[in-house]
Design brief:
mainly beta, nine-stranded mixed sheet, about 5% helix
C-alpha cells in the first residue's frame, strides 16, 4: 500500500518478566514502544483520545507482550466483564493480530480484557475461527492509570517460517467501551478493505532451535440416558441406558509450519443440539457445524468463501460440509418392524494436516473413517436379524492455496473423495460407491484492494449402481425426469434422464467483479450449476440446473454528522434461469441502514419479486408459474454497550396472489451482573403459501399435464419460539452456560387443488377433498442443554452436561399459544447426563 506502515522492534528478554499484569520490570524498558494509535470509530483518522503503549520481548521459549492502556479517568474509567473464553461481550479490550508468515494474508488473533478473559482465533477464509484454543497466558491489572496486561505465548503454539531472523505483520486494536472508541496502530478507514496487506511490522524476532511439540488429549466420558421408549414392547428400547467411552485427540508439530491433528473415537456430547425446525420443502435443512475437531481450522478447507468488505450476496460454491462425516445412517430396518435406533454414524478416526510448505503453499489434508453401522430388528417371521444401514466409508479432502504478489493474488485448488464399501444390496441401490470433486478458486485485487475479481470453478463425478444414480437424477436437486425438459444428452457433463446410467457428472462456478472501497461501491456476479453437478456426499447442495446473475450499486458514508455516524445504501437486482432457458427467479431490491448518533443501528431492506416459472414446485412434474411477492424487512438495535440491549426485527410481505405473511423477531440481552448475562430471542411468524405440494399420481386422462395430476393446497403456518441463553462466569476458566429453545408450530391445509396446465398459475379445485385426510399439524418441543465447563489446568477440561428434550404433536392445525406452550411442559422429558474429562499432555 502506498501509505507508510508503522513498525516496532522486538527485544530479546534480558531479565525476568513476572507475569503479574504489570510490565514494569527492567527487561521491558529495553523494548521499543508501539504507540501513536488512531481512531477508526468514532472520529475516523483522528489521534486516539486514550494513550496505548505495547512492547514485545522474546526468548527461546515464548513471545512476551506488555501493554499499558491509559485512561483519563484512571481505573474508574475501565470497563471489563468476566465472560467465557472467546465471548465477544468483554467491555474494554486489547487485541493483537499477527501475520506470522508476512505474506499479507495470515491472521493469528489474541485478545484480552481487563478481567483477564481471553479470546484467540486463527485465520479462516472470510472470518476468524475462534475454535482455535492454544495454551497461552494473560494476566491483567487495573490501577490509577487505567489497566495493563502481560501476555506469554509459547512458540510451540504458533506457526511461522524457519528463518532465524523474521519480520511479522502486526496490527493492534484497542476498544474503550466508555467512549465507544476503537483505535488502531496501523490505520485504515471504515470504507476500506484493510486486513493483513495494511498491517504494520514487528521486526527483530530471532530464533535458534525450532520448537517441536506433541500434545495428547485423552478423554473419558460417562453418559446416562433416560428416554421413554416409543414402543414399550420393543426389545431394543430401554428407559435407562448407561454407557462410557474413551478416546483421544493428538496434535503434533511435524515441522516449523506443518501440524497434525487427529482424533480417535471422538465424543461430542457437550455440543449444543440443533434447533427445532419444521421443514415441508423437498430440501434438506442446513445446520451449522459445532463439533470442535471439525470447526477448528475449517477456514483453510473452505472453498469459495471470500473475505470482502462489501459483499451483498456471496452465493459461492462449496465443496465441503463437515457434517456429512458422522451423519445419521442412510439405511433403516424394514418398515413396520421393531428396531434399534442409531442417531449418528461412529467416527473411528479423523486426522488433518495443516500448514505451509517451504515454497509458500498453504496445505490442508483431512481424512476420516466412519464405521459400518448395523441395526438389529425383529422380523415378521420371528427372531432377531441384523441389517447393515451404513457402510464403512472413507472421506478425504485436500486443499492447496498460494498467495502471490504480496497477497494481491490468491489461487487455490481443492479435491474431495468419498469411498464406500458397499456390500448390502439395499445400500448399493441407494448410495454411490464413490464420489469425487475437484475445483480451483482465485482472488485478485488491485489499486490497494479497491477492486477485486473473485471466483471458483468445480467439477464433480459420482459413480455407482444404476439404481443409485437414478435416485440422484430424480432428486430435488435436478428432477431429470420432468416430462417437459428439453432433449439433452449425456457426454462429459450429465444432462439427460437415463435409468441405465452408472455415473453423474457436472460443473459449477461462481465469479464476482467489484469495487470494494471508497464511498461509491458496486458489484456484479454470476453463479451456475450444470444439471449433473452433485457434491452432496461431502458438501451441501440444495439444487443444480441453474444460472444466476446479479448487480448492485451502493454507497457508504463513514464521517459522522448531526444525523448519523455511518450510513449506507444499496440497490440492485438478480435473476436466475435453468438450463432449459426458463426464468426461475427475478428480484429487485433496495437497502438503507447505518448507525445513529446515539449508537443505535438500523436498516431497511425491501424487495420486489415478480411471478416466475418454477421447475421445483411440482417435484418432478412439469414447469408451472409461481406467484411473486413484495416484502420489507426492518431491523433496529440499541447501543450494545448498555447493560440492557434490545433489538426489534419485523418484516411483512404480500404475494401477488394476495397471500400475506409477516414475522416479528426481537432480541433482549441483559448484563444482570458483571459475570452473569441473559439473552432472549423471541420470534413469531405467520406465513404460508397457496402452492404447497401435497401429492402427485399418474392419470392417463390428464393429457394436458403429461398424464399426471399434481395436487397442491393453501397452507397457513404459525411458529413461536424463544431462544434463551444464560451465561455465568465464575472465573475465566470456570463457566456455566444454559441454552433453551421452546418451540411451537402449526400448519393448516385448505383448498386442495390441481394445476390445469403447465407454465400457468391456473388451478381447479380437486373433486375429492377428503381423500387426503387431515394433514394439519401442531408440533411443540423444548430443547435445552446446560454445560458446566472447568479448565482445571491449562488445556485440560472437565465438562458436566445435562440435555433435555420434550416433543409432541397433534393434528389440530390452528394456533393457540397458551394451549400449545402449556402442552410443551406436559410432554415427557427425555434427559441425558454426561461427565467428560480430558487431560492435556504437552511440551
Amino acid at each position: 500500500h502506498s501509505e507508510p506502515r508503522p513498525a516496532v522492534q522486538s527485544a530479546e528478554r534480558a531479565g525476568p518478566a513476572n507475569m503479574d499484569g504489570r510490565p514494569v520490570e527492567p527487561a521491558w524498558s529495553a523494548a521499543p514502544v508501539a504507540g501513536g494509535f488512531f481512531q477508526q470509530i468514532p472520529r475516523e483518522r483522528e489521534p486516539a483520545t486514550q494513550r496505548t503503549e505495547v512492547r514485545f520481548l522474546y526468548d527461546d521459549a515464548a513471545l512476551y507482550i506488555g501493554a499499558r492502556m491509559c485512561d483519563t479517568e484512571g481505573g474508574a474509567g475501565v470497563r471489563g466483564r468476566l465472560v467465557r473464553r472467546d465471548q465477544d461481550d468483554m467491555g474494554d479490550y486489547l487485541a493483537l493480530v499477527f501475520d506470522t508468515y508476512h505474506d499479507h494474508t495470515g491472521r493469528t488473533y489474541l485478545q484480552v480484557n481487563p478481567t483477564g478473559t481471553r479470546t484467540d482465533a486463527g485465520q479462516a477464509a472470510s472470518y476468524l475461527d475462534v475454535s482455535w484454543d492454544p495454551v497461552w497466558n494473560a494476566v491483567t491489572a487495573v490501577d490509577s492509570l487505567g489497566w495493563s496486561a502481560e501476555l506469554r505465548i509459547p512458540w510451540n503454539q504458533l506457526r511461522f517460517p524457519r528463518d532465524s531472523l523474521q519480520t511479522w505483520g502486526l496490527q493492534v486494536w484497542r476498544y474503550e467501551e466508555r467512549l465507544n472508541e476503537t483505535s488502531m496502530w496501523a490505520f485504515w478507514g471504515l470504507n476500506e478493505q484493510g486486513g493483513p496487506p495494511r498491517f504494520g511490522h514487528l521486526d527483530g524476532l530471532r530464533f535458534g532451535a525450532r520448537p517441536r511439540a506433541v500434545e495428547l488429549l485423552p478423554y473419558l466420558v460417562g453418559k446416562g440416558a433416560y428416554v421413554r421408549p416409543q414402543d414399550t414392547t420393543s426389545p431394543f428400547q430401554e428407559e435407562r441406558d448407561y454407557s462410557w467411552r474413551t478416546g483421544a485427540d493428538l496434535k503434533a508439530v511435524l515441522s516449523s509450519s506443518l501440524t497434525l491433528d487427529a482424533t480417535f473415537n471422538p465424543d461430542f456430547g457437550q455440543v449444543e443440539a440443533d434447533p427445532a425446525v419444521i421443514n415441508l420443502s423437498a430440501y434438506e435443512s442446513y445446520f451449522q457445524e459445532k463439533r470442535p475437531f471439525f470447526v477448528e481450522g475449517s477456514g483453510l478447507f473452505s472453498f469459495g468463501s471470500f473475505n470482502c468488505y462489501f459483499c451483498s450476496n456471496v452465493s459461492s460454491l462449496s465443496l465441503f460440509y463437515t457434517r456429512r462425516i458422522g451423519r445419521p445412517p442412510h439405511g433403516a430396518a424394514p418398515s413396520g418392524t421393531q428396531a434399534e435406533s442409531i442417531d449418528a454414524t461412529t467416527i473411528l478416526s479423523a486426522a488433518k494436516i495443516t500448514g505451509r510448505t517451504a515454497a509458500g503453499w498453504q496445505v490442508g489434508l483431512l481424512d476420516a473413517v466412519t464405521a459400518p453401522e448395523h441395526v438389529r430388528y425383529v422380523s415378521g417371521i420371528g427372531g432377531t436379524r441384523t441389517l447393515e444401514v451404513e457402510p464403512l466409508t472413507n472421506y478425504f479432502v485436500g486443499r492447496l492455496r498460494r498467495n502471490l504478489r504480496g497477497g494481491t493474488v490468491r489461487v487455490g485448488l481443492m479435491g474431495t473423495s468419498v469411498l464406500r464399501a458397499l456390500g448390502e444390496p439395499t445400500l448399493r441401490a441407494a448410495l454411490p460407491a464413490h464420489a469425487e470433486a475437484i475445483g480451483a478458486d482465485w482472488e485478485l485485487t488491485w489499486k490497494s484492494q479497491r477492486y477485486a475479481f473473485r471466483g471458483n470453478l468445480a467439477f464433480s463425478n459420482v459413480s455407482g449402481s444404476d439404481a443409485a444414480i437414478t435416485a440422484l437424477q430424480r432428486s430435488s436437486a435436478r428432477y431429470f425426469q420432468r416430462p417437459d425438459r428439453d432433449a439433452h444428452g449425456n457426454g462429459l457433463l450429465s444432462n439427460a434422464y437415463d435409468p441405465a446410467a452408472n455415473s453423474l457428472r457436472g460443473l459449477g462456478g461462481y465469479a464476482r467483479l467489484a469495487k470494494e472501497q471508497g464511498t461509491l461501491l458496486w458489484e456484479t456476479a454470476v453463479n451456475f450449476r450444470s444439471p449433473g453437478f452433485e457434491v452432496n456426499d461431502l458438501a451441501f447442495l440444495s439444487r443444480a440446473d441453474y444460472a444466476w446473475m446479479n448487480a448492485n450499486i451502493g454507497a457508504m458514508w463513514t464521517k459522522p454528522t448531526r444525523w448519523y455516524r455511518q450510513l449506507g445504501i444499496l440497490a440492485g437486482g438478480q435473476q436466475q434461469y435453468n438450463f432449459d432457458g426458463d426464468l426461475t427467479g427475478r428480484q429487485l431490491h433496495a437497502y438503507v441502514g447505518g448507525e445513529l448518533t446515539n449508537y443505535w443501528n438500523w436498516e431497511v431492506f425491501g424487495m420486489l419479486v415478480p411471478n416466475t416459472l418454477s421447475d421445483q414446485v411440482t417435484r418432478g412434474g412439469p414447469v408451472v408459474l409461481t406467484s411473486g411477492h413484495r416484502a420489507v424487512y426492518f431491523n433496529v438495535d440499541t447501543d450494545r454497550r448498555k447493560r440492557l440491549q434490545f433489538g426489534l426485527h419485523p418484516n411483512y410481505g404480500v404475494g401477488n396472489d394476495g397471500f400475506q405473511f409477516w414475522n416479528l423477531g426481537a432480541n433482549l440481552r441483559a448484563r444482570v451482573l458483571p459475570n452473569l448475562s441473559l439473552s432472549l430471542e423471541p420470534g413469531f411468524g405467520d406465513f404460508g403459501s397457496r402452492q404447497q405440494f401435497v401429492t402427485a399420481f399418474a392419470d392417463s386422462t390428464a393429457t394436458a399435464f403429461y398424464g399426471r395430476r399434481v395436487v397442491i393446497a393453501d397452507i397457513r403456518q404459525h411458529q413461536l419460539s424463544l431462544d434463551t441463553r444464560v451465561s455465568a462466569t465464575f472465573t475465566p476458566d470456570l463457566t456455566l452456560e444454559v441454552y433453551l429453545q421452546p418451540f411451537v408450530g402449526s400448519g393448516h391445509y385448505s383448498d386442495f387443488k390441481e394445476y390445469v396446465r403447465p407454465r400457468s398459475l391456473e388451478t381447479r379445485s380437486f373433486a375429492d377433498q377428503q381423500q387426503f385426510g387431515n394433514r394439519d399439524f401442531n408440533f411443540r418441543s423444548l430443547r435445552g442443554i446446560a454445560v458446566l465447563r472447568w479448565e482445571y489446568r491449562p488445556g485440560s477440561t472437565l465438562y458436566l452436561a445435562w440435555q433435555q428434550n420434550r416433543a409432541g404433536a397433534q393434528p389440530y392445525g390452528d394456533f393457540d399459544a397458551s394451549r400449545d406452550v402449556e402442552a410443551i411442559f406436559r410432554q415427557h422429558a427425555d434427559n441425558t447426563f454426561l461427565v467428560k474429562v480430558s487431560y492435556w499432555l504437552g511440551r
